[in-house]
Amino acid sequence: MKTNDLIALLASDTLQPQKPVRQQLLQKLLLGAVVCGVLLLALFGLNPQMDQMAVHPAFITKMLWLTALMGFSLYGLFRLARPGVGAGHTFVGLGLALLAMGSLGVIQWLQTDEGARTAQWMGGSWEVCSVSIVALSLPVLGALLWALRQLAPTRPALTGAVAGMLAGSLAASVYSLHCSETSLTFFAVWYAGGIALVSGVGAVLGLRVLRW
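Given the sequence above, the corresponding structure tokens read:
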């Protein structure tokens, strides 16, 4: 092939360069978050006492915990979306965050009178909490997997699990705008349980959807 022909061929290439990994993931995450918020308003509604709840120590602690889970999960996805890149300190951070809330939940439960301990961890919405978090997380998880399919993760199950952790944590944060529970023990059991379920779903879907 002559040089001029090669230059003409390259000039005629209409393929657009891919957006950076972070930009692709953040765009899809934002899209999933918007759909998640709309679902919350349509299915559950906001807590009418949200102005009081927002300054409650338990609510603030929960949101800080969920923010940490989201932060470490997003950090992990930024890494795992690239071929051959490990998760780094993702699981150390996630483990410490889960351990922190679990420890706070156990301490609160032990400090509660024996007659009130059941109510401490079951609250008034244990039947619907984890299920609601899973339901709200599905559009977020779908959006993240959609973005990851355009990238090059080489560990599909692990990447899917981290995507599920991020989706579950974000959905739990959105669900908090409806939830009226104030027990750290409740959060350690049912919020963490819902997030873990989404992470498991993400691992299964990732193994199928993200495999090359």
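Residues 184-209 form the longest helix (26 residues). Try to locate this feature in the token string yourself.
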